[in-house]
Amino acid sequence: MKESGRKQGAAPPCAACKLLRRRCAQDCVFAPYFPADEPQKFANVHKVFGASNVNKMLQELPVHQRGDAVSSMVYEANARVRDPVYGCVGAISSLQQQIDALQTQLAMAQAEVVHLRQYE
Amino acid sequence: MKESGRKQGAAPPCAACKLLRRRCAQDCVFAPYFPADEPQKFANVHKVFGASNVNKMLQELPVHQRGDAVSSMVYEANARVRDPVYGCVGAISSLQQQIDALQTQLAMAQAEVVHLRQYE
Prior knowledge:
2 copies of one chain form a homodimer.
Chain A: H1 15-20, H2 39-49, H3 51-59, H4 63-82, H5 87-117
Helix pairs in contact in A: 2-3, 2-4
């Protein structure tokens, strides 16, 4: 089930264990998702969610869903670091505004189609 | 700067201090945003972000931005509790799909308008 090719004692600790200054065990829950060469990926997740919460959230999920959970947490954490007030909720508001604008434009275009068809 | 009307010793502790079983000081950073009568609001934020991270994030913001930051964190935390794999990133994907669909519909309606105008 492990996605990394680490061998005990052979590879450097994962980015999480390195930041937390702890031994990176062979069954480390972070190692498959936080490789040593991407330290910032874990740093933001740790800053926003906290390592122990991330650990707990991953442990509560089946292994095949953990990669997606990590991706969404990394996305949320990066958004929160960029925008400490709104985080990725800022993106949601902006997408909802785009939807409102598109729905208005679509309604206008459809009304024009109906109008023009009268003269076909 | 306080938004709550608590008086020391007169009111119950805020929802955060109650959950964390600590004394709710008069300058408690959580109290204005997590009233005693909304325990679930803090419970999810604590589960997802951790009380000490929320404390740190609020302290790093000016007081006038903390209410919005709490609202967005509560939104994100509730989304993560409902959907532990995708959290509010699931909402972002779904909104983006709606935008793609609306853009396609709009392009079709606009093309039809152009076509119909040829016969005006």
